[in-house]
């Protein structure tokens, strides 16, 4: 256990309620043989998701310890000596528990004296433990064979060309193969929906599964790299694949008649990501049966072992239906996808049936690490990482959960920590969506543990952010230019794209960013692109603002309010009708707590990107306008100084 955790336990000892005088309904007896005499106090820890929290403490004498309490909420717990711990289960069906083991080896020497739930639990643990060494040995043998194959193949091929998009190998017999490896790092924050690329090749292949079935799913706004790997004969079409646009036009299906491939074998080298793999051609002289027969035999043994474990698990779940341990183990039972389900729909089927084996109405499951891992897998692997999908799939789960339970608390906290606090553009949509549905409706607040003031602050923020989400029509601005005479209605500007730049002449970051934005703006003008840049001064006193505009020759549209317009707002709004209150209150309307703030709007005044800098803005406009801009972000000062040295 981590030192910090131990310190936390010791610090909270004063919060412990003494066991004397309590009319206990739960009694937990433990006997730990060979425990050092120096250990005087032991702890009861409880899971909340995959985190262990303090639950209780008691003295231990001659290796014996007893915990007494009116109630221990059902779930997985741990007995902690201060140095190490073992896990067990508490349920309302098993209130009296007696466990004996040794300090030498908790699991191996475990004896469940009294507790039906834990007898089943450790029956499962011991069974899995007996199978793990067999599995590990088989995997080692297979990896050794794979390495032999890799070595022999690599001796027979030579890399003759290496490009950003592909690598060409030449074998000794003169035949050419092309390894296609696409690595795309793209920021699609300017898109209202993700982009999907799909390539399939169904050539004449022998004994190779899924060869040439290349799929790149969704890109998000976090500049994450997605990789596809496959093989195809060298061709002029492949050589021309030098960019995303050409990739989109490249249709593998149209060429499937002309594509042929020699016998290939899939190998798994030792790479950082276990999901990565690639294929290499087998040389003519290599007998494919030399290793493949042995590899197949090992794979067959691993498959049989996996089936045995899964069946054992299913048998326990069925035999002990209704018990907490049965529900816990059932969470790990894999969803069986019907064999007739097309490959393209298997992921959707798994997502829609992922919770079939999990009783979301039983809050005890939220107090297990297994439930936490299931939630993690579901959101990271089965849910598209865009706000609407995240809120929709989170709602699908949460709407099945009972109010005022730890299950509700865990799920709402998970979404908050993993998405609502994200710096990825657009993820504020999750914050808004979840807030308006679960935190803010009157008399329907699901966040029962939330402090009232925090709840009020959250709801106010959600309502402020809601009009500023990606895809929303940006709040209109009707503000005056530097003369304070001419008023501009931003929504009525005819440009195909509009860049709103909220800035302050006293802001140090603004002073660095405005010149960069000017470079982007002038380059767009030179390329005759229909993009309007609108700078909005955020200081009420406009003297410094006008001075900087003149000194820096900031020649895009410059707007702001001014003291008289705010002091006599009614006159400008109702008599002159040149503006409105949301425009004069633009600092609150656009939630401007820091500057600069940059928004990109489309021709319909919808927000396509926000919270940008000059570099991100340039890259997004390149994609949207199908142009190349020379502007590139300058190196930071510290790097620049190092270069100068």
Strands side by side in the biggest sheet: 21-20-19-22-23
pLDDT under 50 segments (min length 5)? 1-22, 163-288, 638-645
Terminal Cα span: 47 Å
Radius of gyration: 32 Å
Helix content: 25-40%
Q: State the major sheet.
A: 5 strands, mixed
Determine the number of helices (DSSP H or I, runs of at least 4 residues).
20
| Average predicted local confidence, pLDDT | 78
Structural class: alpha+beta
Number of strands: 23
Dominant shape: elongated
Share of β-strand residues: 15-25%
Give the helices and strands, then pairings.
Blueprint: H1 3-11, E1 26-33, E2 41-48, E3 51-59, E4 64-69, E5 75-80, E6 85-90, E7 96-102, E8 111-114, H2 116-154, E9 157-162, E10 166-171, E11 176-185, E12 196-200, E13 213-218, E14 225-232, H3 236-239, H4 244-249, E15 264-267, E16 278-281, H5 289-319, H6 324-330, H7 343-353, H8 369-382, H9 387-398, H10 406-420, H11 428-439, H12 452-465, E17 478-480, E18 487-489, E19 497-503, H13 508-526, E20 531-537, H14 543-551, E21 557-559, H15 563-567, H16 569-575, H17 581-584, H18 586-589, E22 597-601, E23 607-610, H19 614-625, H20 637-644
